[in-house]
């Protein structure tokens, strides 16, 4: 007859298990472990239990997850003691302490287990004792896990790093903006699990959904849909128009505030692509999946899936067609996993896009699509490969509709889409160009072959020949917001004879997604250009004209068009500029020690020729500001005057962190900077 363990209490050994499972950064007093790796719990026995022998005991352990656990779906597993644990399934082994007062039980989870919240129960002949709960995550350190990543430095970056850089601007002026992912902040893991439990698939069939959470492909697809609120009560509401309520997307500096707000009151207003991607990265990393935020400059939105972006203009240079578009930049996430559904050659980075653009399977989600499949033009490989391929590879054709109704091509490009695809470098704040992950070099034999494999028939060869008229836009050196500056259209004539052109040169405000706003400068002149010579046409951009029409993206699109009325020859060039912004000067006073006050002194020069109203500084930092932003309002700041503020905070955690600073006002919005902080005991 087997002896019964008389347990006084069970110690989940949170500190030691967290250390071995790389979960000590979670600000949670609970057991959080990664799958496919042993963790140890300790049974403290009641007095008088010294004489029992492990060999005379017989007990089983039961782990359960989800509201309706079942053995059939793998959401309930029962297993007995063995001599040692087994790597590829739930198993346990035990060892009695020499004192006889404790028994240490090593439990190994299957590397293919569903992630989520589990209960742990001891069963002794039908007598069940609850031992506690634990949260099981994906494990990038386990070679048998689908998200295994070989490099420790990459695991540190793509799973454990709590802050990063998100790249924005234009392909000619790329700007890194700091972001606090904060996946280990108190309460965030619960929000990540709540997102899974709020998804419609869980609502319709909870056990099937929970069972499917063993598969990172499934989880990433659910998250792609749930980070936006289009089909469900997802995290973020998107808005690309005028914003009069909620929080402007440019004001966010981290994911924590957004996720907490969603958990408390539902969909959060508002997000745009970099916010959707940043929040997704937080949730991916929080659940243990390696993830990076990726920015694609010149990102095509191909709504009709023909891999061509067609822009139709009238003779005044105004666009008269809608549908396809090219965004100045677009941001998504890549997560790391195997793809047994596609074949091992498609393992590695997989693109998911939580920004709601087009539906996939009837839901606003996108991916995961193998980056290797995108590079090779394998558009039959799920999920949503054609759409993502077009984002980085589509050809662009510009056409003009003449007064007689005829349509004429006047420009085409195979190189303007999918440029300088960027992510934060591993272990530093430098930008890493990963364009080569997604596509072969522009114009290379391989790139064109891949494009042909993607069923594109319009080669645009006639448009790629060396033009006899060269049209360029030359920028000014100093284009800071608030200043007046000049840009030039440069026309070079390589024809054998003099040509006379009508030149239209104009500037319009533009959003990062390519949507044009109001005009802020225009000039039209007849220009005679002798053979072999160039002429320059200046365009003055005055703050009085552009200041009231530009968005918080601070982007202006310049367009130059030449028309030779004798030959009906049209040429066009465009350039989008991002205006420089004033810098925030950050000085720290006081020593960075846990629970000791220190002060950030913040200064920003108002570069505008007018006063700023409703000025404020907001600071936020993981382990610095107790998980929430601190805002200081400073009212009105006069023209060419300095905005100043002092913000006191008390660090709560030892180690390296980063203080993010955002300045906001009625006319200068979403100016960001950061400073690194090393906190000591």
Describe this structure in words.
There is one protein chain. The longest helix is centred in the middle third of the chain and has 14 residues. The chain is elongated. The protein has 681 residues and is α+β, with helices and mostly antiparallel strands. Helix 3 packs across helix 7. A six-stranded antiparallel beta sheet has the order 18-17-16-14-21-22, sandwiched between helices. It has a five-stranded mixed beta sheet with strand order 2-9-8-4-5. Strands 1-3-7-6 form a four-stranded antiparallel beta sheet, with helices on one face. It has four domains: 131 residues, Immunoglobulins (Immunoglobulin-like), CATH 2.60.40; 302 residues, Alpha-Beta Complex (Coagulation Factor XIII, Chain A, domain 2); 113 residues, Immunoglobulins (Immunoglobulin-like, Sandwich), CATH 2.60.40; 96 residues, Immunoglobulin-like (Sandwich), CATH 2.60.40.
Indicate the proportion of strand residues: 35-45%
Secondary structure: number of strands: 36
Query: How is the biggest beta sheet arranged?
Result: 6 strands, antiparallel
CATH architecture of the largest domain: Alpha-Beta Complex
- Widest beta sheet: strand line-up: 18-17-16-14-21-22
Structural class: alpha+beta
The CATH topology name of the largest domain reads: Coagulation Factor XIII, Chain A, domain 2
């Amino acid at each position: 007859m087997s002896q019964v363990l008389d347990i006084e209490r069970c110690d989940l050994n949170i500190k030691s298990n967290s250390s071995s499972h790389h979960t000590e950064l979670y600000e949670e007093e609970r057991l959080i472990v990664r799958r496919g790796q042993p963790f140890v719990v300790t049974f403290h026995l009641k007095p008088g239990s010294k004489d029992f022998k492990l060999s005379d005991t017989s007990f089983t352990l039961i782990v359960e997850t989800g509201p309706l656990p079942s053995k059939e779906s793998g959401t309930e597993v029962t297993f007995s003691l063995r001599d040692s644990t087994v790597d590829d399934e739930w198993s346990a082994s035990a060892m009695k302490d020499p004192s006889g007062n404790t028994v240490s039980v090593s439990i190994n989870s299957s590397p293919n287990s569903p992630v989520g919240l589990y209960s742990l129960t001891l069963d002794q002949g039908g007598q069940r004792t609850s031992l506690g709960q634990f949260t099981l995550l994906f494990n990038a350190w386990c070679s048998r896990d689908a998200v295994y990543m070989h490099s420790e430095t990459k695991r540190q970056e793509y799973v454990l790093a709590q802050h990063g850089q998100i790249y924005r601007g234009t392909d000619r002026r790329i700007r890194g903006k700091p972001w606090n992912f904060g996946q280990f902040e108190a309460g965030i893991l619960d929000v990540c699990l709540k997102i899974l439990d709020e998804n419609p698939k869980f609502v319709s069939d909870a056990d099937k959904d929970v069972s499917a959470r063993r598969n990172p492909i499934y989880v990433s697809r659910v998250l792609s849909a749930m980070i936006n609120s289009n089909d469900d009560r997802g995290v973020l509401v998107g808005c690309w128009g005028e914003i009069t309520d909620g929080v402007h997307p440019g004001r966010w500096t981290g994911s924590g505030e957004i996720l907490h707000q969603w958990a408390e009151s539902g969909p959060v207003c508002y997000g745009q692509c970099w916010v959707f991607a940043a929040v997704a990265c937080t949730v991916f990393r929080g659940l243990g999946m390696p993830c990076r935020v990726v920015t694609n400059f010149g990102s095509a939105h191909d709504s009709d899936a023909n891999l061509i972006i067609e822009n139709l203009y009238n003779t005044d240079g105004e666009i008269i067609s809608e549908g396809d578009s090219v965004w100045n930049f677009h941001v998504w996430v890549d997560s790391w996993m195997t793809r047994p559904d596609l074949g091992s050659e498609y393992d590695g980075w997989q693109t998911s896009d939580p920004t709601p653009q087009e539906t996939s399977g009837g839901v606003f989600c996108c991916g995961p699509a193998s980056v290797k499949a995108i590079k090779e033009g394998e558009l039959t490989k799920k999920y949503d490969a054609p759409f993502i391929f077009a984002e980085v590879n589509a050809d662009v054709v510009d056409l003009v509709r003449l007064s007689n109704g005829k349509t004429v091509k006047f420009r085409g490009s195979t190189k303007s889409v999918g440029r300088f695809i960027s992510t934060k470098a591993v272990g530093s704040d430098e930008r890493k160009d990963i364009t080569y992950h997604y596509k072969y070099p522009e114009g290379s034999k391989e790139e064109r072959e891949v494009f042909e494999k993607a069923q594109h028939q319009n080669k645009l060869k006639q448009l790629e020949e060396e033009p006899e008229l060269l049209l360029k836009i030359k920028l000014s050196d100093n284009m800071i917001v608030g200043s007046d500056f000049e840009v030039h259209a440069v026309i070079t004539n390589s024809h054998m004879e003099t040509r006379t052109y009508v030149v239209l040169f104009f500037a319009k405000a533009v959003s990062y997604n390519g949507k044009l706003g109001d005009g802020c400068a225009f000039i039209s002149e007849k220009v005679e250009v002798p053979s072999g010579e160039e002429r320059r046409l200046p365009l003055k951009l005055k703050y009085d004209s552009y200041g009231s029409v530009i968005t918080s993206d601070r982007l202006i699109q310049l367009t130059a068009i030449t028309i030779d009325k004798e030959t009906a020859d049209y040429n066009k060039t465009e350039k989008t500029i991002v205006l420089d912004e004033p810098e925030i000067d950050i000085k720290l006073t006081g020593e960075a020690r846990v629970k000791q006050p220190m002060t950030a002194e913040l200064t920003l020069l108002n570069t505008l020729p007018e006063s700023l109203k409703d000025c404020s500084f907001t600071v936020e930092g993981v382990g610095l500001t107790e998980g929430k932003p601190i805002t200081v309002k400073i009212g009105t700041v006069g023209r060419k005057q300095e905005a100043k503020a002092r913000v006191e905070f008390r660090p709560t955690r030892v180690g390296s962190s980063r203080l993010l600073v955002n300045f906001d006002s009625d006319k200068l919005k979403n100016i960001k900077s950061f400073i690194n902080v090393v906190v000591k005991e």
